[in-house]
Design a protein that fits this description.
Strand order of the largest sheet: 6-7-8-3-9-10-15
Number of helices: 11
CATH superfamily of the largest domain: P-loop containing nucleotide triphosphate hydrolases
Bound molecules: adenosine-5'-triphosphate, magnesium ion
Largest sheet: 7 strands, mixed
Number of domains: 2
Structural class: alpha/beta
Length: 328
């Protein structure tokens, strides 16, 4: 399909026999923010490294920006920007020199290079650090510089491997603002992150990976809805009657008393059930004084599919589950 900027089919990767990527297929639409989530060791960086030509394709195939990663690595490299998981700055270069070197490596003509450097330094708010060596930057400033470097060549696709790891909340938010601005200007973003709230807010589409496989995919909304665990809290004039009425309705999994009223677990999208419940209660003379809908978070989705919290690394318990929820 012409509007897919990345297409991956049956991709596998082994490190000395250890299968880190176990045959995955997916695509990324041009212009979207696409996220790869997964616990430590899931295989996310390995996938990024293959797509950015740093690791060879051993089995399967991958196209990036219209070029086959195996046979046209140079063209792929010219189309992309990368921010690696681990810091890759030369500590002896200044902020300006870092970008200047990068522009030269990419053979950017001088005038374009210079104006791009100025633009990028301003974008990531490092104007007053222009002539400071990277060794003397704070962690957040280094990360911002790496993002600026990744963006400098105006890539069609920007790969961001854990772009905000270890940054304070304010810096993370600001970094997302830059990334969104860049995305709105037309760059497709492919990212991995361990921050579920960030992935939830920015992603157009999410793949959850574990043990080298994609175990769930969809929009954040679809993934959350598909858990079928929306909870509606109701305070009514007659909770006993309300429970009887609601208990007969479709998609109701569980009703239990909550601190003031009822807590109703729904097996489908709660936003669709809520009006039905409200009008049924109304018609039967039960007045609703308060109503609240709680959807599962992306964290809940993550734990459901991987069987563990991102922080519980050694945990062996995981569910074998497979879901493709976005309908693509
Ligand atoms: N150079 C390597 N040699 C051998 N095994 C490796 C190498 N790099 C990664 N692996 C293994 O491949 C698997 C996937 O690693 P990868 O770095 O792709 O995971 P990840 O999803 O990026 O994890 P994280 O969230 O910790 O960054 C892990 O089991 C890891 O130990
Ligand atoms: Mg990684």
């Amino acid at each position: 399909m012409a509007d897919n900027i990345i297409e991956v089919k049956d991709l596998e990767y082994r490190y000395n026999g250890f299968k880190a990527v176990a045959g995955i297929s997916f695509f990324v639409r041009s212009g979207e923010i696409f996220s790869f989530l997964g616990p430590n060791g899931a295989g996310k960086s390995t996938v990024i490294n293959i797509l950015t030509t740093l690791l060879p394709v051993q089995a399967g195939c991958a196209m990036v920006a219209g070029f086959d990663v195996s046979s046209r690595p140079e063209d792929v490299r010219r189309s992309i920007g990368i921010v690696f998981q681990d810091e890759t700055l030369d500590r002896d270069l200044t902020v300006w020199e870092t970008l200047e070197l990068h522009g030269r490596l990419y053979s950017m003509p001088k005038a374009e290079r210079r104006s791009s450097i100025d633009e990028m330094i301003t974008l990531v708010e490092l104007d007053d650090k222009r002539d400071v060596r990277t060794r003397n930057l704070s962690g957040g400033m280094k990360r911002r510089l790496e993002v600026a470097r990744g963006l400098m060549t105006r890539p069609k696709v920007l790969f961001l491997d854990e772009p905000t790891i270890g940054l304070d909340t304010q810096t993370r938010m600001r970094l997302w603002q830059y990334i969104k601005t860049v995305n709105e200007a037309g760059t497709t973003i492919f990212l991995t992150t361990h921050y579920m709230d960030e992935a939830d807010q920015v992603s157009d589409y999410i793949n959850i990976m574990d043990h080298g496989k994609i175990i769930a995919s969809g929009t954040s909304e679809a993934l959350k809805n598909d858990l079928g665990r929306d909870v509606i809290y109701l305070e009514t004039s007659d909770n006993v009657d309300a429970a009887k009425l609601i208990g007969k309705m479709e998609h109701v999994k569980d009703i239990s008393p909550s601190s003031k009223g009822l807590s109703v677990t729904i097996t489908t999208d709660g936003t669709r059930c809520l009006p039905v419940i409200m009008s049924a209660l109304n018609e039967n003379g039960v007045t609703i004084s308060e109503v609240n809908l709680k959807k599962p978070s992306l964290d809940d989705v993550f734990i459901h599919y991987t069987g563990r919290d991102l922080r519980e690394t050694g945990a062996e318990k995981f569910r074998i589950a497979r879901a493709n929820i976005g309908g693509r």
